[in-house]
What does this fold into?
Amino acid sequence: MSRTARTDAVFLVAAIGATAPFVIQLAGMAGGPAGDEVRRYVGNLGKLAFLAVAALGAVKSASRLEADNPMRAAWRMMAAGLVGFAAGEVVFVVYEVLLRVPSPFPSLADAFFIASYPFLLAALMRAISAYGETGYPIGTTRERMGTAVAIGAAALLVAYPILKPVLEAPAAPLATVLNIAYPALDLALLVPVVILLRIAIRFRGGQVWLVWAGLLAGFLLMCVADVLYAYFSAMGKESLDPLVNVAFILSYAAIARGALGQYELLLH
Amino acid sequence: MPKTKDALDTIVAVLSPYLGETMARSAARAHCQKLGIVVDSADITREQLDALLRKFTQGLNIFIGREKAAAVVGEIQAAVAARGAS
It folds into this structure.
């Protein structure tokens, strides 16, 4: 078994283990207070572990690339964004695992999460530009602009029906702003993600594809998770929270696999 | 030196694990076109091979870093030389 296949297997087992308690709950077997305890620990610590691996993979990848490598700046910004996400998750762990109280919304965690988005956006934009500098046939700037316009328009069409009930739901002003901000920022992230996906798919079968497939799948899932969270909260469907947790865990696992994959690619 | 087509097949074979076969092949075709290398021509010259590898290295540096890119290019040079000798 190759090193990559072994790492894939470890991630698969870890992701299945971390999502299993929520999938079982969705299947109608909540497991009472013991089930709640398991989900509290596995959910929070699982997300934190995946984000920590993702941030570490991004930091190490940036440090291994030469100073004049255009991808170094992309990985540095990715690292900054992922460290911010990990810090936000630490806040959740402090509330829910250490203090054993439900984490408030909004909280300090939201400050970390929101502050991370500009770094992630900049990282993805820089990666698109770096791909362009390879000199490989990755399509034209015109094609990329076309994709950006199409995804931007589709995102606006999707955002309106989803965000309308969020806007109308009774909530504190800051909570409403955040419930709008997360999906809106995710949809903004979707534009470079889809452009990169269209570029990266040309590398399918190679290790470069595996790295970006992981990262981009993770960002897509994060978008889905945030939209579902905002929608379910506004519609009062908290019973579907396990689905949101599954989406977040899989999202962080995929991003971690991608970031670690880039480090492995540089190292071995 | 081997035939141009054989040299390109060797380059594609070494780069496929990194770039995927589709990209390795289409990049080889695009680089040859830019450099004026005729794929169906007879033997590839040393100058043509070096120019082609310089083009690939530019992209490889970005994805896998300069150190590893140099190792991969060395691997291609050895494989092409072995193919030319056989």
Observations:
- Chain A has one domain: 3-267.
- Chain A is about 85% helix and 0% strand.
- The longest helix of chain A spans residues 32-64.
- The CA atoms of residues 16 and 250 of chain A lie 9 Å apart.
